[in-house]
Write a structure and sequence with these properties.
The complex is a heterodimer of chains A (328) and B (324).
Chain A: H1 5-30, H2 45-52, E1 60-62, H3 68-73, H4 78-85, H5 119-133, E2 139-144, H6 151-162, E3 167-173, E4 176-177, E5 180-181, E6 206-211, H7 215-230, E7 236-241, H8 259-266, H9 270-280, H10 286-309
Parallel strand pairs in A: 1-2, 2-3, 3-7, 6-7
Antiparallel strand pairs in A: 4-5
Chain B: E1 2-5, H1 6-20, E2 24-28, H2 44-48, E3 53-55, H3 60-72, E4 76-80, H4 91-98, H5 101-104, E5 114-119, H6 134-138, E6 144-146, H7 151-163, E7 168-173, E8 180-183, E9 197-200, E10 205-209, H8 212-226, E11 231-235, E12 238-240, H9 244-254, E13 257-264, H10 269-281, E14 290-294, H11 303-309, H12 313-321
Parallel strand pairs in B: 2-3, 2-4, 4-5, 5-7, 6-7, 10-11, 10-13, 13-14
Antiparallel strand pairs in B: 1-8, 6-12, 9-11
Helix pairs in contact in B: 1-7, 3-4, 8-12, 9-10
The chains are: A alpha/beta (328), B alpha/beta (324).
C-alpha cells in the first residue's frame, strides 16, 4: 500500500491532536477543573491512530477506559469531547458519561468502557450484526494486556473464531495492568507468555505482534487484518507493544516501574519517531511541523475554552436517558 | 384463538417476529438442532437457518455481551440463558453494559435485546437450577423485566419485548411451559409492557402475583370463594415498568393486600410492591400487608423439602384466612 503525503501527515496530525488533548486534560485535571478520574493515552498514540486509519465510515470500534485517543483517532469532535470530560451539558454524553464512557455512536463507537475487557464480547456482537444484516462492516476491538487475562477475552475471541466474525482484536500491550507487569522473567506478572498474540493459536485465528510505537507498523498489520475480515476470512489478533507515559490514572505514583524504564520508552516516542520518518522522506520540514503543531494547539485551546464556557447539565437530566427516547 | 402451550406460544412469538423483521435473531446454548433445553426454540432453526438461530458454545458472557453489541449495531437479538441460576456468569454484561449503555452515552446508544430466562422451582433441579432472580434485575435502572403467567401473555409480551427499544429481561417459569391456553392467532397480537391484568375480580382482598403464582392464587381464590371470601387477583405481567395504578386502585377497593411470590422473601419484588403500597396507599389498608414467599434459603433438592419450600395454593389460602 502506498499512502499519499497528505495521508501520512494526516496520521501525524491525529497523533499530535491526541498528545495535545491529553496534555491539556492532564493539566486541567491537576488544577481540579475535571471531576472523577482520567486515564491518559499519552505514549500510545500510534496504536489508536494506526488502527483507526485502516477503517472506513461503515466500520465500528469498541473502546476502553483509556479511550480518549480512540475517539480522537476516529475523528471525534474535540469540543464535545473536552466538554464531556469537564462534565458539561454540551459534551458528547451530556455530561452523563465522562472520561471513561466518552463516545460518538454516529462514528461507530460502541462505547468506551469502565470495565476492563467488556468491549470484547460487544465487538463480537457487532460482528454478528454484520452477518445478520448482510453488511461488510468490520469492528476493531481495542483492549489492553490486562484485559487479555479476563474471561471475556477468551469467550469473545472463541465465539468470533467459531462464527468467523469480522472483528480485529487489537491488544494495546502497554506492559502493565495498573501495577501488574504483563510479563517479566522473574517476579510477579500477569501472564507467563511474552506475547499476548501467542494466545491466538488457542482459538484457531492468526495473531501477530507489532511495534505499537510505530504508527505505520500498526497500520499495516490492521489494514491486513481488516482486509481479511472483510473478505470473510474471520477475526485476527494484533498485539501492539507500547507504553503509557503517565500512570494508570492521573495521580498514580507509578512506584511499580523505574524512571529509567520510562526514559527508555520515551526515546521510542511514537510521535518523535514518525516526525523523523516524515522528515527523512522529505514529506515534512521544520516549518511545516511547527505549523501543524500550532494548528493543533489552536484547536485544543478552542475546545478547552468551549468546555470551560459551557453550561453545567440541568438537574432534570438525572433521570432522562435511562430508557431510550429515540434518535435526536 | 388457538390452543397452545406456554412454550409453543413463545416459539410462535419468535417465529412471527423473525418473519416480520429480518434483523431479529435467536442465540443461546442448544437452541438450534436440539430445540432448546426446554424445547422452546423447537424447529426455528429449520425455518430460519443456523445464521439466525445460533447455537453458541457454553459461553454465557459472550452470549450476553455479543447480544449487547449486536443490538447496538442494528440487530434485535433474542438470547437465551438456559437457567436463571446461570445469570451470575454474564452479570457484568447485563448490569453494566446492556442496562447502562443508553444512559452512559447520554441517550446516543440503545440496546434493543431480549434475554429469555427459564426459572423457578418444582422439578427437583436443586439450588443452582431453580431460583427466582427477577428482583435483582428490577433493581437495575435501564432494564425492563417481564414475567408472563399464561400462554397468551407469553406470546403477546414476548412480541412486545422483541419490538421494544430497551433491554428486556424475560422470565419464563419452567412449570408453566406445558400449561395450555387460548392464544390469539393474529400476528399483531401484542401485550404492552407496563399494563397489568385483573385475573379475577373480587371485593374482599387483593392478591398480587406473577408467573406461576397467578395459577396458585386463582386456585386459592376459588377455594376461598366457597368460604365466603371474595378475592381479587392481579397479575402485573411486567415488573418494570410496573402497573402500580392497577394495584393501588384494587387495594383502595378491598383494603387488604397479599403478595404471593416464589422468590426468597428478603429483598424480593414482593417487598417492593409492599413498599410502594405502604408509601402511597397506607390509608387504604385495614390491616398489615402480607407476603407469601419462599423462605430465606436456597432451593432444596428433595421433593419433600422442595414442596415445603414453595408457596402453593394451600399456603396462599391459609395466609388469606389469617387476614379474616
Amino acid at each position: 500500500m502506498k499512502e499519499s503525503n497528505e495521508e501520512l501527515v494526516g496520521l501525524l496530525e491525529k497523533m499530535l491532536v491526541i498528545r495535545e488533548f491529553e496534555t491539556t486534560v492532564q493539566k486541567h485535571f491537576a488544577e481540579g477543573e475535571i471531576p472523577g478520574f482520567v486515564h491518559l493515552y499519552l505514549g500510545e498514540e500510534a496504536v489508536g491512530v494506526g488502527a483507526c486509519s485502516a477503517l472506513g465510515e461503515e466500520d465500528f470500534i469498541t473502546s476502553t477506559h483509556r479511550g480518549h485517543g480512540h475517539l480522537l483517532a476516529r475523528g471525534g469532535d474535540i469540543k464535545k469531547m473536552m466538554a464531556e470530560i469537564f462534565g458539561k451539558a454540551t459534551g458528547y454524553n451530556k455530561g452523563k458519561g465522562g472520561s471513561m464512557h466518552i463516545a460518538d455512536v454516529n462514528l461507530g463507537i460502541l462505547g468506551a468502557n469502565g470495565i476492563v475487557g467488556a468491549g470484547l464480547p460487544i465487538a463480537a456482537g457487532s460482528g454478528v450484526s454484520a452477518q445478520i444484516l448482510g453488511k461488510e462492516s468490520v469492528t476493531v476491538c481495542f483492549f489492553g494486556d490486562g484485559a487479555s487475562n479476563r474471561g471475556t477475552f477468551h469467550e469473545a475471541i472463541n465465539m468470533a473464531s467459531v462464527w468467523n466474525l469480522p472483528v480485529v482484536f487489537v491488544c494495546e500491550n502497554n506492559m502493565y495492568g495498573i501495577s501488574m507487569p504483563q510479563y517479566r522473567a522473574d517476579g510477579r506478572k500477569g501472564q507467563n507468555i511474552k506475547d499476548v498474540s501467542d494466545r491466538a493459536v488457542a482459538y484457531g485465528i492468526s495473531g501477530v505482534t507489532v511495534d505499537g510505537n510505530d504508527v505505520m507498523a500498526v497500520r499495516e498489520a490492521v489494514v491486513e487484518a481488516v482486509k481479511k475480515a472483510r473478505a470473510d476470512g474471520g477475526p485476527s489478533l494484533v498485539e501492539c507493544k507500547t507504553y503509557r507515559h503517565r500512570g494508570h490514572f492521573e495521580g498514580d505514583p507509578t512506584v511499580y516501574r523505574s524512571d529509567e524504564e520510562l526514559e527508555q520508552w520515551k526515546k521510542k516516542d511514537p510521535i518523535d519517531r514518525f516526525v523523523k520518518v516524515l522528515k527523512d522522506q522529505e514529506m515534512l520540514d521544520d516549518e511545516g511541523y511547527k505549523e501543524l503543531r500550532d494548528k493543533v494547539r489552536g484547536q485544543i485551546d478552542e475546545a478547552l475554552q468551549f468546555a470551560q464556557d459551557s453550561p453545567e447539565p440541568d438537574v432534570s437530566e438525572v433521570t432522562t436517558d435511562v430508557y431510550y427516547g429515540g434518535a435526536e | 384463538m388457538k390452543k397452545l402451550s406456554y412454550a409453543e406460544a413463545l416459539r410462535v412469538a419468535m417465529e412471527e417476529e423473525m418473519s416480520r423483521d429480518s434483523s431479529v435473531f435467536v442465540m443461546g446454548e442448544d437452541v438450534g438442532v436440539f430445540g432448546g433445553c426446554f424445547g422452546v426454540t423447537g424447529d426455528l432453526v429449520e425455518k430460519f437457518g443456523e445464521d439466525r438461530v445460533r447455537d453458541t458454545p457454553i459461553t454465557e458472557t459472550a452470549i450476553i455481551g455479543s447480544a449487547v453489541g449486536a443490538a447496538m449495531t442494528g440487530s434485535r437479538p433474542v438470547a437465551e440463558i438456559m437457567f436463571a441460576g446461570f445469570l451470575g456468569v454474564p452479570m457484568d454484561e447485563i448490569f453494566n453494559q446492556a442496562a447502562k449503555m443508553c444512559y452512559m452515552t447520554g441517550g446516543q446508544a440503545h440496546v434493543p435485546m431480549v434475554l429469555r430466562v427459564p426459572n423457578g422451582a418444582g422439578i427437583g433441579a436443586a439450588a443452582q437450577h431453580s431460583e427466582r432472580t427477577e428482583a435483582w434485575f428490577t433493581h437495575i435502572p435501564g432494564l425492563k423485566v417481564v414475567y408472563p403467567s399464561n400462554a397468551a401473555d407469553a406470546k403477546g409480551l414476548l412480541k412486545s419485548a422483541i419490538r421494544d427499544e430497551d433491554p428486556v429481561m424475560f422470565f419464563e417459569h419452567k412449570i408453566l411451559y406445558n400449561h395450555v391456553g387460548d392464544v390469539p392467532e393474529e400476528d399483531d397480537y401484542l401485550v404492552p409492557l407496563g399494563k397489568g391484568e385483573i385475573k379475577r375480580e373480587g371485593s374482599d382482598i387483593t392478591i398480587v402475583a406473577t408467573g406461576i403464582e397467578v395459577s396458585h392464587s386463582l386456585e386459592a381464590a376459588e377455594k376461598l370463594a366457597e368460604e365466603g371470601i371474595d378475592v381479587e387477583v392481579i397479575d402485573p405481567r411486567t415488573l418494570v415498568p410496573l402497573d402500580i395504578d392497577m394495584i393501588m386502585k384494587s387495594v383502595e377497593k378491598t383494603g387488604k393486600l397479599l403478595i404471593a411470590s416464589e422468590e426468597v422473601k428478603r429483598g424480593s419484588f414482593a417487598s417492593e410492591i409492599a413498599a410502594e403500597v405502604a408509601e402511597e396507599g397506607l390509608f387504604y389498608l385495614e390491616q398489615p400487608i402480607k407476603r407469601v414467599c419462599a423462605p430465606d434459603a436456597p432451593v432444596p433438592f428433595s421433593s419433600v423439602l422442595e414442596q415445603a419450600y414453595l408457596p402453593d395454593a394451600e399456603k396462599i389460602a391459609d395466609a388469606v384466612r389469617e387476614m379474616f
